[in-house]
Amino acid sequence: MTLNTLRAMRRDPGSFLGFAIVAVVILAALLAPLLPLDDPTELDLKRKLLSPSTEHLLGTDHLGRDELSRLVFGARTTLLMSAASLVIIMTMASVVGGLSGYYGGWVDSGMMMVVDLLLAFPALILGVAVAGILGPSLINVMIAVSVVWWASHARVIRGMVLSARRREYVEAARAIGASDTRIVVFHISRNIVGPFVVLATLDMGWIILGIAGLSFLGLGAQPPTPEWGAMLNTSRSYMQTSPLLLLAPGVAIFLLVLGFNLLGDGIRDLLDPTTYR
Amino acid sequence: MTLPLLLLGISIISFMLLNFAPGDAAEITLRRQNGGVTPSREAVADLRQELGLNDSLPVRYGRWVSNAVRGDLGESYRSGGSIATELFRRLPATLLLAATALALAVAMGIPLGVMAAVKRGTWVDTACRLLALVGAAVPSYVLAPALMLLFAVYLDWLPAIGYGSPKTLILPAVALSFGTMAQLMRLTRASLLEVLGHDYMRTARAKGLSDSVVVWRHGLKNALLPVVTVLGTSMGYLLGGAVIIETIFGWPGIGQFVVTGIFQRDYPVVQGFVLYVAILFSLVNLAVDFTYRWLDPRIHFGGTFN
User: Fold this and answer.
1) Which of A96, B62, B137, B172 pairs as cysteine with A258 (C-beta 3.0–4.6 A)?
2) How far away is chain A from the Cα of B212, in angstroms, using its nearest Cα?
3) Count of CB atoms situated within 10 Å of the CB of A125
4) How many C-alpha atoms does A38 have within 13 Å on its Cβ side?
5) Does B108 touch chain A (CB under 8 A)?
6) What is the CB neighbour count within 10 angstroms for residue A55?
7) Residue A60, beta-bridge partner list
8) How confident is the model at residue A144 (pLDDT cuts 50, 70, 90)?
9) Contact present, B159 and B152 (Cβ < 8 Å)
10) What end-to-end distance do the CA atoms of chain A give, in Å?
11) Interchain contact, B136 vs A205, CB within 8 Å
């Protein structure tokens, strides 16, 4: 993203808000160990389920841990897991979609058959099953989300590569003797990077929801790791006495997903082919 | 992909799932029968032979799939009961929840989308846009406890959990439908705006039809095509969401069954569930394709699926 992109985004309040939310959460996650926060895993049953005070701005949870601290450290878990999943998903989708779209023929039919097959399962159903069979852990949730999520993107990237392949610059590159690898890496990928970034940004929201959802079911983060979905699940038992414990991670998930969606929408509008270049 | 090929693929993936599961089926079965005592190595080996677990992968797949076709999905590791029977017994509850949520999403989303498109640029449109943004960012597992807190704990209007009366259906169905409702609204708006720009809309107006007839009869009929195509995907999304919603509200459907199964390491339950839902989802998609063809006679599928 260039400086111009950011400048243009400032004129659109929606995408600027999205950018601001995402930036604040990323900063908070990065700086979490430096902030004046309690240890998010330190138990103290004497101070359990406290109401908000100047000492604990969002109160404490059922084991006496500072809620604000768990929220901020939870952002690290969520962002790290989601970003790692996104990298795996986009890599798998690029390789499969790229090969499919570029070579066509039986490579394409074979790979798209696998894609169609994966898409025949509702994503969350297969995600729950894969994570469930691998056993509850954050890494397994990441694997589950990646396994079920890459297929639809492979299809989109295949479409992008397919249309790029027929353009004159590819023909020109081939005419001067460029190899297939060189054409894909230097020519095609540079021309589909815009829609690719939009796809990835809009996807962060879905990945965050997926990971937090599986964690909510107890399949992801295991105690005492702070994670928003798991915090939401635990706090349900205390919703009558400490509703804030429920609202805080809920609002955090909502805001972060909203942020990525607004940001994605904003980038998409900027890169729209009718206004692009 | 044709339907038989798709079903074959679905069954292979479902079968392979169990192969990745830790633990040995023979040992787990014996342990259950002996009341938790670790069985002897000979007993496990005998049962493995008896169950055919030593056979090659294709042979085991063939046996599993021929049983599945006859409605036998094996026995639960925990209870020893038939998994197919239990899934079948619980399916109506899940279908009731998912279908109600879909009906709610359609009944709210499409009219709101039409309103937003017709009143484009007004505060109605802005409100609908905001609703769409919120709907895409609030997951059902955040909305459900929030609704529970408001309507069951504070206002005490509706029961928090339970199953049986229409009242218990309201909160789970609303929580499940919200995201889909927002998505259908957004799609209807975009699709109708595009249609409203076409020539035949101007013709309809020119021949003196009132605005409402133009929008509802001529416009919406054409604008609904893209909306119908996503209904299949929506149903899949709702079936997935039902797993979480059923767990939250104690709803006795197949989703709750599978989550319990996961934590008891009852892997055949997970396998049977995946097979069941994937087949159901394929049939829903097939029905959507037929509806689509019926709505738009220009489309011919030539016997292919998807």
Assistant:
1) B137
2) 32
3) 26
4) 22
5) no
6) 11
7) A66
8) very high
9) yes
10) 14
11) yes
Asked if the C-beta of B87 comes within 8 angstroms of chain A's C-beta atoms, the answer is no
Q: Does B19 touch chain A (CB under 8 A)?
A: no
Q: State how far the Cα of A202 lies from the Cα of A271, in Å rounded to an integer.
A: 14
B139 reaches A (C-beta below 8 A): yes
User: How close is the nearest chain A Cα to the Cα of B156, in Å?
Assistant: 12
- Is B148 in Cβ contact with A121 (below 8 Å)? no
Q: Determine, for residues B133 and A121 on separate chains, whether the beta-carbon distance falls below 8 Å.
A: no
B76: left (phi over 0), alpha (psi -120 to 50) or beta: beta
CA distances from A142 to A84, A125, A137, B291 (A): 8, 15, 9, 37
Note the pLDDT tens digit of each residue in B43-79. 888 888 877 777 888 888 888 888 888 888 888 887 8
Q: Is B265 left (phi over 0), alpha (psi -120 to 50) or beta?
A: left
pLDDT of residue A275: 43
Residue type, A44: D
In angstroms, how far is CA B254 from the centroid of its own chain? 11
Cα(B144)–Cα(B246) distance, integer angstroms: 10
- Contacts of residue B297, defined as CB under 8 A and 6 or more positions apart, other chains included, come to none
User: What is the spatial distance between Cα B223 and Cα B124, in angstroms, rounded to a whole number?
Assistant: 20
The residue assigned the tokens 């049939």 is B283
Instruction: Give SS3 for B208.
Output: coil
Give whole-number Cα distances, A270 to A12, A210, B167, in Å. 10, 27, 47
- Determine, for residues B133 and A243 on separate chains, whether the beta-carbon distance falls below 8 Å: no
Q: What is the pLDDT of residue B304?
A: 45
Query: Per DSSP, which regions of A153-205 are E strands?
Result: none
B138 touches chain A (CB under 8 A): yes
Helix (H, G, I), strand (E, B) or coil at B82: strand
pTM of the model: 0.87
Closest Cβ opposite residue B9 in set A117, A122, A250? A117
> Which of A132, A205, A232 lies nearest to residue B141, judging by beta carbons?
A232
Identify the CA nearest to B196 among candidates B169, B175, B221.
B221
Q: Which amino acid is at B145?
A: P
What is the rounded CA–CA span in Å between residue B137 and residue A209? 8
**Least CB–CB distance from B244: residue in A129, A213, A261:** A213
Cβ–Cβ gap B274/A121 under 8 Å: yes
| Burial (Cβ within 10 Å: 0-12, 13-18, ≥19) of residue A64 | middle
Contacts for A207-210: CB closer than 8 Å, 24+ residues apart = A207/A82, A207/A85, A207/A86, A207/A89, A207/A145, A207/A149, A208/A78, A208/A82, A208/A253, A208/A256, A208/A257, A208/A260, A209/A253, A209/A257, A209/B139, A210/A123, A210/A124, A210/A127, A210/A145, A210/A149
* Span A32-58, pLDDT tens digits: 787 777 777 777 777 776 677 777 677
Q: Show residues of chain A in contact with B277, CB under 8 Å.
A: 121-122, 125
| B271 to chain A: closest CA residue | A129
B45 touches chain A (CB under 8 A): no
d(CA B144, nearest CA chain A) in Å: 10
Amino acid code (one letter) for A72: V
